[in-house]
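Hello, quick one for you while I still have it in my head. My current little project is about how a certain protein chain folds up. You're getting the sequence in one-letter code plus the fold written as tokens. Would you mind checking whether the tokens look sensible for this chain? Here's the protein in full, and shout if anything looks odd to you:
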Amino acid sequence: MNLSQIIHENEWGIWLKLPNKFGGEVLLQTWNDSNQVISFDPKRRDINDELYCTEEQYQNLVAQAVKEIELGEIQKIVTSRKFEVGYALEQWESQIHRWILQFPEAFIFCFNHPQWGLWMGASPELLLYKKENLIQTMALAGSKSIEDSSDWTTKELQEHQVVVDMIQKTLDQSGARNIQVSALLEQPYKNVKHLMTEMTATYDGNWQQLVSALHPTPALCGWPKRSAQNWLSQYEGYHRDLYGGLLNITVDENAWSIVLLRCCHWQTDKTVGFVGGGVMKESLPQSEWLETEWKRQAFIFAGDAHFQ
């Protein structure tokens, strides 16, 4: 089995290129008990395959989220939208090879799953890495154009800190020890950059339980988690499927849980892409729309001439 067979011959399997900081190697596996995918919200299956957000619709969704946050129960909501990507299945393999050149620090993946079908992407986000009793995770939240040299706003810093606090608290409550938190970093991703904080710890507990406790972080859903997730189930209007979900893969003593961002899905006769962004009380609908456009452009969707 190889990448071409996964894409073109409907082989059930995983092709994954690790970031350079994890060695940059390519992992190729069939589905087995040590590998799994987890959807963003397993409870929902009311899929609307034809729902694509216009600029006006997405700004209305953001405005509605801001109003909900102003009520005081929810601090952050991560809204998203999906859109049709203008290239055929025959172009997937060449696109993946372009991502390899463009995004050396991304998890570049392609997999075909018996339940969820064919997905590919170039995700910048690691939920959790484990080798023996050493673990590594990150908070990745707060985004703006790579050309924006201004200071990060209070909104962006607060949006990021919500994620840091949740991850650190979850690690502590789950029994992790020696938790180390990095300084605040910037992670570039073509024409968008993110705020990033890395964390390491030692952990002797159950890997799957820790993954479940962390997912979805406020970077994918909002905070408090369940309240934000319930709001999205009611108002976002479509099922995210695996967007914002996880790919868990184990090789020997190494285990990765990768957040499925900057990803797209083959649906019968078209490719559908997904983008999103964190909404806070100070969020402006127009700015949030532009953030999703930067992310869409950063993803270099082939076939969309405006973003070449």
Residues 301-308 have pLDDT under 50 and may be disordered.
